[in-house]
Amino acid sequence: MVAGLLPRLASDVVGDPAAAKAAPVAAEVDPSPDRGPGRGADASPDAPPETPPAGSPAPPERPGKRGTVYLTFDDGPDPRWTPQVLDVLRRHGVHAVFFEVGQNVAAYPDLVARVRAEGHLIGNHTWSHAKLTDLRSRAIRDQLDRTDAALGGRARCVRPPYGATDPRVADVIGARGQRTVLWDVDPEDWAKPGTDRIVRRVLAQVHDGALVLMHDGGGDRSQTVAALEQVITRLQERGYGFGLLDC
Ligand SMILES: [Zn+2]
C-alpha cells in the first residue's frame, strides 16, 4: 500500500539535500540555489497536472474518494518552523510522520513532545543527517542508535538522508527491526522555489497512496508552511484524504 517503503533506484531517490548542508541544529543554513539534486530528466519542476486545470468542471467528491495521501516532514524539530507546521496540521486535523534529526531531538525535547502530543509520529532521520551509504555499518548503527536514544526508544521507521540507501544500508536498518521509508512526491521545498510552485508540484505528482516529502527544518521553511495550508485544502478539494504511516 505504501510505495515509499520500498527502496527505489538510486537515481530516483536523490533529493532532500536541504539539511545536509545545514548544521542540524542551526536552522538558517540553506543550500545555495544551484545545489539542486540534479535529477536529470526528472528535474522538470512543473510537470503538467494529472487532473484538469482549475476551472474545469469536476464532480464534487467527498474527502478520501480519490485516495489517501501521507504527509512527512524531515529535518526537524526546528524551534521556528516546526510549531508553524504543527499549527497548520492541527487546524486541518491532519497527522503526519516527522523524520527527525537526532541532534535536533536532543536540542529541542519540548518540540518532540509537542509533535507526539498532537498525534503525529516520529521517525529516525539519523543523528547528524549523515549520508548512510558513505558510512561503515557500525557507523550507521551508531547514527541510528544515538537518535533512537534521544527519542526514548527505537523508532519504527528510518528515512536515510538524501534517500541514500543501498542493499547494505537497507540490511543494517532492517536487522534492527526498522523500516526504510522513502517518498514518491517531492516538491523540493528545501530549495525554496516559491509557495505556488511547491503547491503545484505536489498536485502534479500526487496519487493514491502518495508519500509526500516536505521539510520542517534545515532552513527557512516559510514557503513550506504557506504551501502546506494550500496543499491540504486543494488535495481535500480533489477528493483526497490524509493517512498516517504506520511508523
Ligand atoms: Zn533530510
From TrEMBL:
Residues 67-243 form the NodB homology domain. CDD domains: CE4_NodB_like_6s_7s. InterPro entries: Glyco_hydro/deAcase_b/a-brl, NODB_dom, Polysacc_deacetylase_ArnD. Residues 13-68 are annotated as: Disordered. Pfam families: Polysacc_deac_1. Residues 46-61 have a biased composition (Pro residues). Residues 13-30 have a biased composition (Low complexity). SUPFAM superfamilies: Glycoside hydrolase/deacetylase (SSF88713). Signal peptide: none annotated. Gene3D superfamilies: Glycoside hydrolase/deacetylase. This is Polysaccharide deacetylase. It comes from Nocardioides aromaticivorans.
